[in-house]
Amino acid sequence: MNERNRTSVTEFILLGLTEDPKLHLPIFVFFLLVYIITVTGNISIMALIRISAHLHTPMYFLLSHMSFVDFCYSTSITPNMLANVLSTKKTISFAGCMTQLFTFAAMGSVEVFILTGMSFDRYVAICNPLHYNAIMTKKTCAYLLCGAYVVGFAHALTLTLCMLRLSFCDSNEIAHFFCDVPPLLKLSCSDISLNVALLIFVTGGFILGPLALVFVSYTYILNTIMKICSESRWTAFSTCCSHFICVTLCFGPLIFMYLRPKSKYSMHHDRVASVFYSVIIPMLNPLIYSLRNKDVKKAFRKIMPKKSW
Predict the structure, then answer these.
(1) At 50, which helix (H) or strand (E)?
(2) Which of 79, 180, 198, 261 is the most exposed place for a label (fewest CB within 10 A)?
(3) In the chain, how long is the greatest CA-to-CA distance?
(4) Of 88, 119, 106, which is closest to residue 150 (Cα–Cα)?
(5) Residue ranges in 56-202 assigned as alpha helix (H)
(6) Which of these, 198, 108, 114, lies nearest to 161 by C-alpha position?
(7) Are strands 91-93 and 173-174 parallel, antiparallel or unpaired?
């Protein structure tokens, strides 16, 4: 019976952000612009770091991978959402849904750990500047990135495999614009207790664990900054400012999405938060590092063609 039910749903219907036809075109135009900026910004950051010799440092090496992750993260969701906005048939196959779930979960998890690695980089740069080159070697960066990808993909694979064990035998309408875990669990007619426990404990650990490490790093960073002279204090803090903003934008929506009490769950609020962390944040990250980082702006100015008079 369970096997029959599991195969009874071969595709899902993504209801999207709204069912009001008048809003479909404005939503399409807005998110198309957001996606174009996201792709352009993240590819530009990756290319800039690759061709600019003075950006070949551990911090920017990690940043280039974060831009790659943001690009993949946004691409796994936004193009499908744009296609569905103006389509009358807003369907996604079961295999496509699981692939999307795995991809965005993997990229989201990897980004969390890359941000954690970047906080360690800032800790070493501020608190142990004389030993920075000895600690943040190429091997250290490779270990940090390898750990981020391995753990992130393992987390996504666990979530996806636990979703594949469920049966979907009633409605196939997902009240969302992509295949996320909570709306899929609401459609299942199987026992979802294992999935809920996994979502709370494992995903919670993947959010709170790295967040705790970031918090410890910034505690030491702020303590060190407060001990130095006031003239150098802002210079030291500005080196962490872009990263701290990205950490806040990343962890805030994730905590709201996956760690809030079940009694506070709202599909409307869920979709709004999902738009922010899955579509808007991948666009904001390269902008934050471009606008607030002197090294990045300097590199941009060097490669821009000079105006001829």
Answers:
(1) helix 24-51
(2) 261
(3) 77
(4) 106
(5) 58-75, 78-85, 94-127, 132-135, 138-164, 181-187, 193-197
(6) 198
(7) unpaired
| Cα–Cα distance, 164 to 76 (Å, whole number) | 19
Residue 93 pairs in a beta bridge with 11
CA–CA separation, 174 vs 186, rounded Å? 9
Give the type of residue at 178: F
DSSP 102-120: HHHHHHHHHHHHHHHHHHH
Residue for token pair 């980004």: 111
CA–CA separation, 98 vs 157, rounded Å?
10
Helix (H) or strand (E) run with residue 14 in it: strand 11-14
* H-run or E-run covering 93: strand 91-93
Helix (H, G, I), strand (E, B) or coil at 11: strand
pLDDT in tens, 263-306: 555 666 777 888 888 888 899 888 887 766 777 777 777 776 65
